């Protein structure tokens, strides 16, 4: 039995490595290398780019992942983290995030997936990774599993990692009328006086999004906290008023 288990682990490791190499090869094939330094400079990225535009990246990922077997949450997480950890180019990490949202992984989007998303947020530590994971991966789990997830988001909002704080503020971006205002305000509160640009921007963005649903409530909140909110946050929050 130990030999069998070891053989299974070895096959899985080879499968994850093989997926990474296929992703790297295909992204390199469809890349425009001349765009790579421009993309890297725009994102202020240490990690280089292949030079793959977003529409091309999504199309390539659909082709690459279309027949990928995802028989269990464990296999899915291993593939996602294999891509994420093994990436040498930024688009390979984007591919990992795309795979994390694969339709066949819907059943795996539960609180047990949060250590994976937390790793991506903490080690990615930049807005292009964090924002999509917060709003499109963490957010749906918050909606479906409010009790444990609200507790987690409140804890994230108070932690020392600014990207987890940002994620807690942005996780309800697409909720509209389903937004839990108490949770949103609780997640904003620990960062409301922050001088950190990425937190000020996140608060303003979250409030602006909710303003499409209830502009009067957002205006009330901004006016009530005018002395604490930064000018950037106030401008962002009231941009559509």
Q: How are the SSEs placed, and which strands pair?
A:
Elements: H1 2-30, H2 36-43, H3 54-65, H4 73-86, H5 90-100, H6 114-124, H7 127-144, H8 146-158, H9 162-170, H10 181-188, H11 197-211, H12 215-224, H13 231-237
SS summary, helix count: 13
CA distance, first residue to last residue: 66 Å
Sum up the overall morphology in one term: globular
Number of strands: 0
Radius of gyration: 20 Å
What is the residue-averaged pLDDT?
A: 94
Helix content: 55-70%
The helix-strand sequence is: HHHHHHHHHHHHH
* Major sheet summary line: none
Structural class, judged by helices and strands? mainly alpha
Low-confidence stretches: none
Strand content: under 5%
What would you say about this model in short?
The chain has 241 residues and is mainly α. The chain is 68% helix and 0% strand.
Q: What does this entry look like structurally?
A:
- With 241 residues, this protein is mainly alpha-helical.
- 68% of the residues lie in helices and 0% in strands.
- The chain contains 13 helices and no strands.
- The longest helix has 29 residues, at 2-30.
- It is globular.
- The model has no long low-confidence stretch (mean pLDDT 94).
């Amino acid at each position: 039995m130990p030999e069998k288990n070891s053989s299974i682990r070895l096959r899985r490791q080879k499968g994850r490595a093989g997926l990474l190499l296929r992703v790297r090869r295909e992204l390199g094939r469809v890349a425009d290398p001349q765009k790579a330094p421009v993309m890297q400079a725009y994102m202020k990225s240490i990690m280089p780019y292949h030079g793959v535009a977003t529409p091309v990246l999504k199309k390539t990922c659909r082709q690459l992942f279309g027949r990928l077997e995802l028989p269990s949450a464990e296999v899915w997480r291993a593939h996602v983290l294999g891509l994420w950890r093994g990436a040498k180019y930024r688009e390979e990490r984007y591919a990992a995030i795309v795979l994390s949202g694969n339709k066949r992984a819907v059943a795996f989007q539960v609180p047990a997936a949060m250590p994976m998303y937390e790793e991506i947020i903490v080690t990615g530590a930049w807005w292009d990774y964090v924002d999509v994971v917060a709003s499109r991966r963490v957010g749906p789990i918050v909606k479906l599993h409010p009790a444990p997830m609200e507790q987690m988001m409140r804890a994230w909002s108070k932690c020392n990692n600014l990207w987890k704080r940002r994620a807690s503020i942005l996780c309800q971006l697409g909720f509209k009328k389903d937004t839990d205002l108490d949770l949103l305000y609780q997640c904003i509160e620990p960062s409301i006086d922050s001088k950190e640009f990425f937190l000020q921007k996140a608060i303003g963005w979250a409030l602006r999004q909710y303003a499409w649903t209830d502009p009067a409530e957002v205006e009330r909140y901004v006016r009530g906290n005018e002395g604490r909110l930064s000018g950037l946050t106030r401008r962002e929050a009231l941009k559509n008023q």
